[in-house]
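Quick one: co-fold with erythose-4-phosphate.
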Amino acid sequence: MAHTKTKILLDGGDSEETQRIKRLLGFLDGQTTNPSLIAKNPEVKKLVASEHGLSVREQMAEYRKIVEAISPLVGDAGVSIEVFAEENTTAEDMLDQAREMFTWVPNAFIKYPCTREGLRAAEQSVGSEIRVNMTLCFSQDQAAAVYAATKGAKVPVYVSPFVGRLDDIGENGVDLVANIKRMYAAGDGHVAVLAASIRNLEQLLYCFLLETELVTVPAKVLDDWARNGFPMPDGDFKYTAAGKPILYQELGLDQPWQNFDIQHELTRKGIEKFTADYRATLSQTT
Ligand code: E4P
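Sure, here it is.
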């Protein structure tokens, strides 16, 4: 396989799939999970069907089992575990979950949404050396806020721009990744860009070209990469833009995170969907 500087993570919620992909690639740097992926886990689906839903405690126990099974299979990019966060979930509530989840495995990263409360939680987390992955990032302002909120972190921090979901609304999602990389080039390097919501091989190759520090990829795209002989982007590689360009903004990173305009409709919708998928695994009486 050709060499890439980009670390490759699997975007999934099933350790058997992790094993298969690790065999296919010969390595796997890490994995990201989220509430929708956990709801699709075969064991969780079986339990939900046979017990008419899980209690909150059982759901957590299943999530932990999944993460514990994945953890030893992956490398130092770790396993990202997402807190349950609704629109009105406070940073304190997220932090309580994070402290517990961070003890599950030695290579845990905690996922918080790019919202005000998520950023507050991240700010405090890095202070207590909890590694974080800021998810549902759809704008350069949000990425700038992640940088500012976690400045001085002694542990790795990831920000996850969601490429495919921006394509879905007619914007060229990979532009956001390129813009964040460009903006961070003027910074101190404490936040790594983890390209997420990857839907096809072309997006994956473009992330390699941009030299994003990390990319999280669903199994079917990695299957496609393998089927095509693990191609790498060469001098002739041209990315077919998926929508209208996302323009670069000049944003100074040396300001408080509260100064940035972090609202984004897709972040709100993403939280709504994760919440709905999580709730669908719970019993009515929970
Ligand atoms: C990232 O960590 C998310 O799990 C993921 O990439 C979301 O991708 P989707 O837009 O295909 O759901």
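If it helps, The chain is about 45% helix and 15% strand.
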